[in-house]
Amino acid sequence: MNVINLFDQDTSTGYNTTPYRDPINLSNGAFLAGFNLYTAVANTAGIRSDARFGQANAFLARREIRLAATIAF
Fold first, then answer.
1. What residue segments make up the domains of the chain, in order of their start?
2. 1: Cβ–Cβ under 8 A, 6 or more apart, which residues?
3. pLDDT tens figures, 39-58
């Protein structure tokens, strides 16, 4: 017998890690030289924050019970 998520918990297993909805375009030179994210966002027009940032987006699967039986002759 194999039981997955025995107590049917809604534990989160993943979180939204994208703080902005829009891409931040940087040249290769600026990216490789190092940059301040907040300054790049302030200097780029139209960047929108993502309200889902830091919230759970993946959870444990529902309760599952598997039974197996074998017959050997």
1. 2-66
2. 65, 66, 67, 68
3. 889 888 889 999 999 999 99
